[in-house]
Write a structure and sequence with these properties.
Elements: H1 3-14, H2 19-26, H3 30-38, H4 46-56, H5 60-65, H6 68-77, E1 81-88, E2 100-105, E3 116-120, E4 133-138, E5 148-153, E6 159-164, E7 169-171, E8 177-178, E9 183-194, H7 195-202
Parallel strand pairs: 1-3
Antiparallel strand pairs: 1-2, 3-4, 4-9, 5-6, 5-9, 6-7, 7-8
Helix pairs in contact: 2-3
């Protein structure tokens, strides 16, 4: 089914208007409306598209190229948030204290939400993660499912990112091999999103 046809059916349904009523409001023959809705005509004139656009308050480009029903469903998902603690990145990092709280969309695939926390990076972390990244972690100890771990050295107490593969663990920054027995796992990296995404979604 053509995009315009799908969108007209969707818009007419949510506004509870039938073809005859729409035809009357727009001063367009009901037969023409029927052909657009049924997909028999997929390229109405610009003047008629402008009337549809004004009535439904939808941009012409969206009307003819985007699936508005899917777009609305995604928008609804991004209006539902959960709150997670945010920690500053420093050598004294601890998940016992956080500096702020961030609202993140429920749509994100982040696993068990009660064990989720995030770290705010003020810099680009040596080019590995973009500036203003929000790194989202889970306190899950099931490391088999994840590639990037946040760990703390049991002796000198510093923290670092390590990447695991089938045979060993390596520092994300230096690529040096890591003896995992010397470290305590703080969390596993489950998602990375730029801070501006949160600013756009959670205001």
């Amino acid at each position: 089914m053509h995009t315009l046809s799908k969108n007209l059916q969707y818009l007419m349904e949510i506004q509870n208007i039938n073809k005859s009523q729409l035809a009357k409001v727009l001063s367009i023959p009901s037969m023409s409306i029927g052909r657009w809705v049924n997909g028999k005509v997929t390229d109405p004139s610009l003047s008629k598209l402008q009337r549809l656009s004004r009535f439904f308050e939808v941009a012409i480009d969206d009307l003819v190229t985007r699936n508005l029903e899917v777009q609305d469903e995604v928008r609804k998902l991004y209006t539902e948030f959960i709150n997670i603690p945010v920690f500053e990145w420093n050598d004294d990092f601890t998940t016992e204290y956080h500096v702020s709280t961030k609202r993140i969309p429920k749509i994100l695939n982040i696993g068990d939400k009660k064990d989720i926390f995030s770290i705010a990076h003020p810099s680009d972390y040596y080019g590995i993660y973009p500036k203003k990244s929000i790194l989202i972690f889970s306190k899950s100890t099931n490391i088999e499912l994840y590639d990037i771990l946040l760990v703390r050295n049991k002796i000198i107490n510093n923290i670092l990112f390590i990447r695991k593969n089938e045979k060993n663990y390596k520092s994300v920054l230096t690529h040096e091999k890591i003896d995992i027995d010397q470290y305590k796992i703080v969390g596993v990296l489950v998602n990375i999103i730029l801070d501006k995404v949160f600013l756009n979604l959670s205001e």
